Amino acid sequence: MHLTHLQLVDFRSYPALELILPPGVVTFVGANGQGKTNLLEAVGYVATLGSHRVSGDAPLIRDGAERAVIRSRVVRGDRAALAEIEIVAGRANKVRLNRRQLPRPRDLLGLLSIVLFAPEDLAMVKGDPGERRRFLDELLVARTPRLAGVIADYERVVRQRTALLRARGDLRTLDSWDDALARHGAELLAARLALVEELRPRVTAAYAAIAGSGAGSGDEEKATESVGVEYRGGVVPPTSADRDAIAEALLAELATLRPREVERGMTLVGPHRDDLALAIGGRPARGYASHGESWSLALALRLASFELLTADDRQPVLLLDDVFAELDAHRRRRLAELVAPAEQVLITAAVGADVPAELGGPRFAVHRGEVVGVE
């Protein structure tokens, strides 16, 4: 799978841009603030219908414009598809596939698979549980697009149930909301548990590959230290993925905590409160891991995602957004070796020399919203 064309109209800093992209490695070089990340953000939007930088769509529209448009041609095997996304602030986006408007924007999910490496990835290790839940759910949707609907339904139930608790409305209706939360929550939780079981050995192997000999000394990681990846849920054993059992457990916990929920005006039960526990050498990565260890673990999570999607025959496009500047020479070299075999790798860098020589291919200079081929 790879992109052959990317066209932007009033997206971020680009009034108009059209790029022809070959398979293999493509690097965009330019100083900070020139628009490099905007290119990868647009590609990511085609894959996920969201940005890795902002939560809403309004910042994606160029100042003074009413809408932004992303067009991309995606090739998989001998098939090509044209995706067109029109982003309008405050209104529903319009999405077309091969010139035909789709009933719902999320029907586009699954056309393009990506794995994005970005400086923000450090938050998966050092940040709040919400960052790790987001990582799991985005990977779930990338593998099984229909789960986007399950997640949306679950989040809607939590919002409406919480609003009822805060308003101290007719609490007799909580039973029906509990049933809906348990039903959607059980499907989401079962999917997360199964995903973590598949991720665990791949994260361990990827961490060892990234943090092998030469990764550093002193407070840097020891390659022999074990990596722990465990799902921490409030109501289910991490080994259980039985949806009916999970739903029953959720309902039981909701009944137990209802007085506390009413008192606090919050939904205290469900996968929206769970976490992915990451450890290195038996200690929690958050709060204990060094900077180098944290980066190695973040990279390992992304590499494990790439392996899973590849095993699903999705062959994702890899996006490396100014990552090499964050890494020491060893990690740069190891990451380059691990991603080089991908069908397509799109890289941004402020300094071209930061990109290891193993990653050849054409380079483009990015300056004030213009992209010019230089090699």
Distance between the termini: 23 Å
Helix content: 25-40%
Question: What is the number of strand segments?
Answer: 15
User: What is the N-to-C order of secondary-structure elements (H for helix, E for strand)?
Assistant: EEEHEEEEEHHHHEHEEHHEHEEE
Strand and helix layout:
Blueprint: E1 2-11, E2 14-20, E3 24-29, H1 36-48, E4 67-76, E5 79-88, E6 94-97, E7 100-101, E8 114-117, H2 122-126, H3 129-143, H4 147-167, H5 174-210, E9 227-232, H6 243-264, E10 275-280, E11 283-284, H7 285-288, H8 291-311, E12 317-321, H9 329-339, E13 344-349, E14 363-367, E15 370-373
Parallel strand pairs: 3-13, 3-14, 8-12, 12-13
Antiparallel strand pairs: 1-2, 1-4, 4-5, 5-6, 6-7, 9-10, 10-11, 14-15
Structure description:
This protein has 375 residues and is of the alpha/beta class. Helices cover 40% and strands 23% of the residues. The chain has nine helices and 15 strands. The strands form three sheets. It has a six-stranded antiparallel beta sheet, with helices on one face. A six-stranded mixed beta sheet has the order 8-12-13-3-14-15, with helices on both faces. The chain has a three-stranded antiparallel beta sheet with strand order 9-10-11. β14 (363-367) and β15 (370-373) form a beta hairpin. α4 (147-167) packs across α5 (174-210), α5 crosses α6 (243-264) and α5 (174-210) packs across α8. The longest helix is centred in the middle third of the chain and has 37 residues, at 174-210. The two termini are 23 Å apart. 41% of the residues are buried. The model is unreliable at 214-221 (pLDDT under 50).
